[in-house]
Amino acid sequence: MERTSLELNLPDTHEEGKLYVVDSLNNLNKLNVCPAESQRSLDQEDNTGDTGKRMAGSNAGNQRLFFITFALTLTVSLVLVSFVIFLIFQTRNEVDQISSRLLSEKKNIEELKKLNNIILKHLNQSRIKE
C-alpha cells in the first residue's frame, strides 16, 4: 500500500512529458504557419519571465534615446536660430550703411546740380556780355 515518492512522481512526469511534446509541436506549427513578425509576438506572449525585465530595460533605453535626441534637436535649433538672428543684425547693419551712403551720394548729386546751374548761369552771363 505504500508507494514510494518515485512511483507517485512517475505519472506526473509522464503527463508533463506529454504536455512538453504537445507544446513543442505547437511551437513548430507556429514556426511553419506564422510569419516572423507574428511569431515574435507569440513568443513574447509565451515568455513572461524575462520579457518584462527586457521590455522595461528597452523602454528605459528608448526613453533615454528620445531625451538625448530631443536635447540635441533643441541645441541644434537654438544654434540655428542664433545664427539667423546674427545674420539679420548683420544684414540690417549693411542696409543701414548702404542707405547712409545713398543719402550722402544724393546730397553730393544735389550739390553738383547746384554747381552745374551756377556754372551755366555764369556762362550765359558771359555770352551776353560778349
Give the tags:
LSME1 protein; disordered N terminus; about 0% strand; 3 helices; membrane; DUF4577; about 130 residues; mainly alpha; rod-shaped; transmembrane
Structural features, described:
InterPro entries: DUF4577. It holds the Pfam family DUF4577. Keywords: Membrane, Transmembrane, Transmembrane helix. The protein is an all-alpha fold and 130 residues long. The protein is 93% helix and 0% strand. The chain has 3 helices and no strands. The longest helix has 81 residues. The protein is rod-shaped, with a radius of gyration of 46 Å. The N terminus is likely disordered.
Per DSSP E runs of 2 or more residues, the count of β-strands stands at: 0
The amount of beta strand, in percent, is: under 5%
Order of helices and strands: HHH
Unreliably modeled segments: 1-10
Short précis:
Helices cover 93% and strands 0% of the residues. The chain is built from three helices and no strands.
What is the fold's blueprint, element by element?
Elements (H helix, E strand, L loop, with lengths): L4 H29 L2 H11 L2 H81 L1
